[in-house]
Amino acid sequence: MSADKGKAPANSSTTALPYELPWVEKYRPKILDDIVGNGETIERLKVIAKDGNCPHIIISGMPGIGKTTSVHCLAHQLLGDAYKEGVLELNASDERGIDVVRNKIKTFAQKKVTLPPGRHKIVILDEADSMTPGAQQSLRRIMELYANTTRFAYACNMSNKIIEPIQSRCAILRYAKLKDAELLKRLLEICEMEDVKYNDDGLTALIFTAEGDMRQAINNLQSTHSGFGFVSADNVFKVCDQPHPVTVQAMISACIKGDIDQSMEKLNELWNQGYSAVDIVVTVFRVVKTFDEIPEYTKLEYIKEIGFTHMRILEGVGTLIQLGGLMARLCKMNLKPELFKI
Ligand SMILES: Nc1ncnc2c1ncn2[C@@H]1O[C@H](COP(=O)(O)OP(=O)(O)OP(=O)(O)O)[C@@H](O)[C@H]1O
Ligand SMILES: [Mg+2]
């Protein structure tokens, strides 16, 4: 298969590619303007891209929300054609021990490159939280010594894995999870460009399952589209293989009514479909969080109970009885206390 990569099929007269790029890559934003969400932070990056004096930066945040993309867009906009010469990118797939920092990064920092006036070389350290503290330590002096010619851009999921001295040398930009409306905007654009057939429930399901992660939303969109040809809620949940929120909603509704039989029935249904206790409890949480039928006070109590159950499951007791216990507690909260008097 790999031999055919990039070649058009011999008998094809169309211009269609024989294989398709994953949409996440196909629609990776090329310029900062195309990145959705985190408006203020992106604005700051745009100002930097325009003025040219890029500080050392750390971008941190959850997976799939545009960190790597932003750093690349910024570097492209700053350096233009000189990108190849002026950027050294190292990510977690590269060796990044102390030796590499000493040799590769230092050599790059010392290298003379012709850049547009007022611009600096950029070292991109993606997934920087996986660098050992030792390797990070050895960057401290390098960052200072070569600051007038070389700037560092880190991207990471957890900024606390970056050692303090480096944090203090950098401007830290924190990316938040993307909002539903922001995911929707991008999904709609892609649906239009790829001619995807969808209904509103399908898009809502994609957003529900992605939880603010654009990469996941786009990947699930593509999988549903190529697997079923139509993006509906049912198809999305089949692809994502998560408990269907409608079933979970029915289960919670039964709890609100104090109907343990009904809620256990739904729970058994999910359990028999093979979902693990974690899958179920996580979906229960997400459903409860956005369920309008539950009064605020009850919702808070429910979330407390779900939290405790989640903890017990993570400690290793992920049995049906554990989940049944949760259902029982949720039901009990809505029953009148008199019922319990003997
Ligand atoms: N804010 C965004 N706007 C538009 N597309 C986005 C955005 N965030 C993510 N994407 C899409 O998701 C893909 C992955 O994004 P990116 O590589 O920037 O994630 P990341 O934040 O670096 O995640 P990780 O922490 O896993 O490295 C991109 O190719 C793009 O298609
Ligand atoms: Mg990344």
TrEMBL record:
> What SUPFAM superfamilies has UniProt attached to this entry?
P-loop containing nucleoside triphosphate hydrolases, post-AAA+ oligomerization domain-like
**GO terms, biological process:** DNA repair; DNA strand elongation involved in DNA replication
Report domain AAA+ ATPase positions: 53-185
Q: Where is the signal peptide?
A: none
Q: Does the keyword Nucleus apply?
A: yes
Q: Which domain of life is it from?
A: Eukaryota
Q: Which InterPro entries match?
A: AAA+_ATPase, ATPase_AAA_core, DNA_pol3_clamp-load_cplx_C, DNA_Rep/Repair_Clamp_Loader, P-loop_NTPase, Rep_factorC_C, RFC_lid
Instruction: Decide whether keyword Magnesium is in the record.
Output: no
Keywords for this entry? ATP-binding, DNA replication, Nucleotide-binding, Nucleus
What's one Pfam family the UniProt record gives for this protein? Rep_fac_C
Predominant localisation class: nucleus
Protein localization: Nucleus
Question: Listed GO molecular functions?
Answer: ATP binding; ATP hydrolysis activity; DNA binding; DNA clamp loader activity
Report the GO terms under cellular component.
Ctf18 RFC-like complex; DNA replication factor C complex; Elg1 RFC-like complex; Rad17 RFC-like complex
Family that this chain belongs to: Belongs to the activator 1 small subunits family.
Name of this chain's protein: Replication factor C subunit 4
Q: Which organism is it from?
A: Phlebiopsis gigantea (strain 11061_1 CR5-6) (White-rot fungus)
